[in-house]
Amino acid sequence: MIRLGRLPRLVYINWVLLRHGLDEVILATHLFRPLRFLGWFMPWRWLRSRHIPRGQRIRGALEDLGPIFVKFGQILSTRRDLLPPDISEELARLQDRVPPFPGSEARRIIERAYGHSLDEYFEHFDEVPLASASIAQVHLARLRDGRDVVVKVVRPGIPRVIRRDLDLMYTVAGLAERYWTEGKRLHPMDVVREFEKNLYDELDLMREAANASQLRRNFEGSGLLYVPEVDWPLTRRDVMVMERIQGIHVSDVETLRARGVDMQALAERGVEIFFTQVFRDSFFHADMHPGNIFVDPDRPDDPRYLAVDFGIMGTLNPTDHRYLAENFLAFFNRDYRRVAELHVESGWVPPETRVDEFEAAIRTVCEPIFERPLHEISFGALLLRLFQTGQRFNMEVQPQLVLLQKTLLNIEGLGRDLYPELDLWKTAKPHLQRWMDEQVGPRSILRKFRRQLPRLGEELPELPMRVVKTLNEVEALRTQVEVQNEQLHRLRREVRHSSARSFATVTGAALVVSAFLLLGLDGYAPAMLGDAPFMTWVLGGAGGLLLLAAWPRR
Ligand SMILES: Nc1ncnc2c1ncn2[C@@H]1O[C@H](COP(=O)(O)OP(=O)(O)OP(=O)(O)O)[C@@H](O)[C@H]1O
């Protein structure tokens, strides 16, 4: 059911959709269906008839609906497994540009978070924002100790806007799942749920700061990537302070060339950073758009990247991790059988999948790609084709892999912009191979052993005492078992005796009763009993003896 409170915004959404000639996606409910026909009388029908591509119309509608919808569109653009290419490519152009909120407001938020005047901590705070996006805004500042920093502040009132828009998205997704034929396949509710998680992650700047610290530690002293240092004492849930970095935007190829940056090395290092993050650390920056990446201007011959914005990070569990590496290697060895097997083994496709059929489908998709020169092969496109093939075999959508594919596409695009001859495979293979060797080779055993070493070191001195204690416990247990065994034997004997006694009692009593009966019959005893008084004595005597034998003794 649609809640009344949501109705005005829902009507507004429909209005925007109509305005962009999207009446075919007007919420497919009986409630809104009459609105569809309004479209026939409106000029935008005419616009549509002039063949504005549908991707552009959807992009326009999302821009009109506000920043949360724009973000949603951006995330959707990465779901090339769900959307047709014309729409996903158009959505990828969505820009998260939102008018900034006043610097005085940012000041107020920071002071509320610290509980003190901003001047106590900052020598200077630039009220004109450096950048402004839908969730947060970034300001330049200088600390009292002279360090230049950037201060990221969460947009005021944004949690409420997020809640409102998410509510609507859930409503729309629910309706789509129910009434739209494609809805069952695309699982829109799951897509919104995933989006919600990302949004709330981005809202928490403590979380982003922790991501930054972890990534910084992972690349400490590597010379490949520099991550600015977080100022933890000044970081809160809605305010983050970090070292200011100064570099050349990675998309500014002209300046990079003019500064004499080694473009091949730069492109290859981008790939290396990605594979190191994915396969060595299993922790990767998943928002690698060019706006977040800079190049260190001071090291043109030995280029180094500088990264910002750690709101969205990807991780892989050890199983996905291993299967992914094996998949890449199998792919590039054109071992499609192995690729198909790996998909079944990892549980990405159902276990009943026919491996031979799946293998044939993968071969059909990949062979044309491999016909091209290796430096033209796109990893991202390959993964995408694989997802699409997997879908035909009921492959479950794996969000962590989708994030990875999106990042790979980013890295690939970036690398090829910098150095078009970049051979991704040649650059990536040694990293993959090294990772595989480390996972299965003797080094891996050594590494695992090393990881256990501190615990072993702690527990080793206690080992003799533990052995003695364990032996004592075993001895005590053995004695206990013996005692219990003896008791068990006794019990069994008693049960056997008592059942024999019961038998003797019942039989004895029966014989004695029979004797009395015979006595009662007197001369009427049947002939077959012969001499009745004699039989009485025999039965009575035998019964009496049995009763005597069964008499309890102490
Ligand atoms: N430590 C830093 N040093 C220098 N500039 C920075 C730093 N952090 C952020 N910036 C600048 O501010 C911009 C926005 O920062 P950031 O990407 O973290 O914010 P955002 O709100 O997540 O924006 P978006 O969602 O558009 O990526 C960056 O693109 C970069 O230009």
**Individual helix count:** 22
User: Stretches where pLDDT falls below 50 for ≥5 residues?
Assistant: none
Write down the domain tally. Answer: 4
Largest sheet: 5 strands, antiparallel
Number of strands: 11
Q: In angstroms, what separates the terminal alpha carbons? A: 82 Å
Bound molecules: adenosine-5'-triphosphate
Q: Provide the β-strand percentage band.
A: 5-15%
Mean pLDDT: 82
Using the alpha-carbon principal axes, give the shape.
elongated
Structural class label: alpha+beta
Radius of gyration: 39 Å
Fraction of residues in helices? 55-70%
Keywords: ATP-binding, Cell inner membrane, Cell membrane, Coiled coil, Kinase, Membrane, Nucleotide-binding, Transferase, Transmembrane, Transmembrane helix, Ubiquinone biosynthesis
InterPro entries: ABC1_dom, Kinase-like_dom_sf, Prot_kinase_dom, UbiB, UbiB_bact, UbiB_kinase
Family: Belongs to the ABC1 family. UbiB subfamily. Belongs to the protein kinase superfamily. ADCK protein kinase family.
Binding site for ATP: 130-138, 152
